[in-house]
Design brief:
The protein is of the alpha+beta class. Helix content is about 20%, strand content about 30%. The chain has 2 helices and 6 strands. Strand 4 and strand 5 form a beta hairpin.
Length: about 110
């Protein structure tokens, strides 16, 4: 069972209390974007085996969206942070690199 801590209300919630929202930190394209850019935004997802940054909503709690870093192979959760953050926090990235030095895709 996946357990995430909401960074807003501090509640440790099981995944049944949360709603997944897909990949985090996507570049969104608005009006005037090329068809290729919009198609990439709508349909192209990384879906890696390993560390992944995702959007989650505390559906049966405070109702707020937040971001989480977890391993898709082991369900290990590295941390959560507010949804308004444009990049993963430096301390979270350092913790991931310390535990998973072989993972090169971290930004």
């Amino acid at each position: 069972m996946l357990i995430l801590t909401c960074p807003y209300c501090g509640v440790r919630a099981e995944e049944a209390e949360l709603a997944p929202g897909g990949e985090a930190h996507l570049k969104r394209f608005g009006a005037g974007a090329s068809d290729e850019d919009f198609e990439g935004y709508m349909f192209a997802r990384k879906n890696p085996k390993g560390v992944h940054f995702e959007r989650w909503r505390h559906a049966y709690g405070c109702g707020k969206w937040f971001l989480a870093a977890r391993c898709t192979a082991t369900l290990e959760v590295f941390g959560t942070y507010p949804a308004q953050t444009t990049r993963p926090p430096a301390d979270l990235l350092a913790a991931i690199k310390a535990k998973r030095p072989q993972w090169e895709g971290i930004e």
